[in-house]
Write a structure and sequence with these properties.
The chain is an all-beta fold. The protein has 1 helix and 15 strands. Helices cover 2% and strands 47% of the residues. Strands 2, 3, 4, 5, 6, 7, 8, 9, 10, 11, 12, 13 and 14 form a 13-stranded antiparallel sheet that branches. The protein starts with 28 loop residues before the first strand and ends with a strand. The relative contact order is 0.25.
Length: 218
């Protein structure tokens, strides 16, 4: 594979965050080698972000938009890392009065808000390879809350030390958490009887500079 994007949010990130053109003809992408430590970045999702039931195919909550912001903390020696300071999920349901975002949709638990509970997240690639990892605050497990008027608040914690996945590189670099219990699985740690006992995440996203230029490789 061509030279890897030394990047992956927590993070998010994603919940998540992110420069000179890679080539003269690639005006819509930037070369990650030129993304400096301290640079501000933001995320853009590809398709919906879906929290799945344990079977890995049945949607529990569907969000149309994720928006994460952060800054680069490392970009050398084949590794890209960033701190994700905000990671928001929103959808097409009515506004939630507490966070001012449109809620995500669900056929089973009603329109829902989703909050990452332990920001900032940290997202990092590993070298060599195409893998990335998303950690919670201070390197802990990612935690998030799903809440609705039907079931109240349900808090989840990642099953494994980090949410993991792979990234692909072309004009832009797309990060995809593994939609399995081993990759993005989480377990219920707080909530009532009607809270789903576990969930896993299906989504893909890339990172951009704050002026909207997508980060890719030549």
């Amino acid at each position: 594979m061509y030279k890897k994007l030394i990047l992956s949010c927590m993070a998010v990130a994603a919940f998540a965050a992110f420069v000179l053109p890679a080539t003269a003809s690639a005006a819509t992408a930037t070369d990650p080698e030129h993304v400096k430590v301290g640079a501000s970045i933001t995320s853009k999702n590809t398709g919906n972000a879906i929290f799945m039931r344990t079977d890995g195919v049945t949607p529990e909550v569907t969000c149309s938009t994720i928006h994460a912001t952060g800054s680069v903390t490392k970009n050398s020696e084949g590794v890209f890392s960033a701190t994700i300071s905000t990671f928001n999920f929103s959808g097409t349901a009515p506004l939630n009065p507490h966070n001012g975002l449109n809620e995500c949709t669900s056929s089973s638990i009603g329109s829902s808000f989703i909050t990452v509970a332990n920001l900032p997240l940290t997202i990092t690639t590993v070298a060599p390879g195409d893998n990335f990892y998303l950690f919670g605050k201070n390197g802990g497990k990612v935690k998030f809350i799903i809440g609705s008027t039907v079931i109240g608040e349900c808090e989840y914690e990642a099953t494994n030390p980090a949410i993991s996945g792979t990234y692909t590189t072309s004009v832009t670099t797309v990060f995809t958490p593994s939609n399995t219990q081993a990759g993005s699985g989480s377990k219920l740690i707080r909530g009532g009887f009607f809270c789903p006992t576990s969930a896993q995440l299906f989504m893909s996203f890339n990172f951009q500079t704050t002026n909207g230029v997508e980060i890719g490789i030549s």
